[in-house]
Amino acid sequence: MWTRRTVVEATALAGVGLLAGCLEDDEESADEPPEDDDAPADADEGGQTDDLEAAIADHDPVDRTDAEEVTIDVAPDGELRFDPEAVLVEQMTTITWRWPEPGYEIYPIESPDQCGWAGDDHGSGHSWEFPFVGTYEIGCTTPDDEEFTGHLFVTEG
Q1: With contact defined as beta carbons under 8 Å apart, do 62 and 72 qualify?
Q2: Fewest C-beta in 10 Å: which of 2, 87, 95, 99?
Q3: Which InterPro entries match (predicted)?
Q4: Three-state SS across 27-86?
C-alpha cells in the first residue's frame, strides 16, 4: 500500500538517481568549454594575447630597462603629455610621476588583469613598482578636466 511516506521516499530516490547521472564526470560535458588547441602559446587564461612586442614597436618607447627608478613628468611646460610619452622598463622598476601642481590625476586605462594599481590624485607626484609584465595605458586628467594618455611597457627583469 502506498502511503505518503512511501511516495516521498520513492520520489526522493528517483530524483537522486536522476541527479547522479547529471553529476557524473563526462569527457564530452557541455558545461566545460572545449580546449582550444589553436590558442597561441602566450595566451593568458582569458584567451587574450598581450602582444607586447607589437605594442612596443607601435609606440617606440624610451628604453629604461637598465634603470631601477624612472621619473615621468606630467604636463611638462603646460603641454598635455607625459615626458617620456612611452617608456620601456623591467619588472619592479619604480616609476615616479611628477606633476606641476595639485589637481592632476593619473589612472590606468588598460593594464594586465592581475595588476592592482589604481592610479593617484594626491599631492604633486606618485610612485609605483609594476610587478606584472605587459602593456599599461596610463591616463591623466588635469585640474581643468583635460585628458591625455601615455604608455608603460613592462618586460621581464
Answers
A1: no
A2: 2
A3: Cupredoxin (IPR008972)
A4: CCCCCCCCCCCCCCCCCCCCCCCCCHHHHHHHHCCEECCCCCEEEEEECHHHCCCEECCE
Domain range 52-155, CATH class: mainly beta
Distances (CA, A) of 148 to 47, 82, 129, 144: 29, 8, 22, 12
Percentages helix, strand, coil for the chain, rounded to the nearest 5? Answer: 20, 30, 50
Closest Cα to residue 154, out of 106, 93, 109, 72? 93
Distance separating alpha carbons of residues 11 and 47, to the nearest angstrom: 44
DSSP 143: T
Tell whether omega for the bond before 108 is within 30 degrees of 0, i.e. cis: no
- The series of mean pLDDT values per 10 residues for the chain, 157 residues long, is 49 43 40 45 38 91 96 95 97 93 89 73 80 92 94 93
Q: Can you give the residue ranges of every domain in the chain?
A: 52-155
C-alpha R_g of the chain: 26
Whole-Å CA distances, 11 to 1, 6, 15, 23, 122: 16, 8, 6, 18, 65
Q: Are 152 and 95 within 8 A, CB to CB?
A: yes
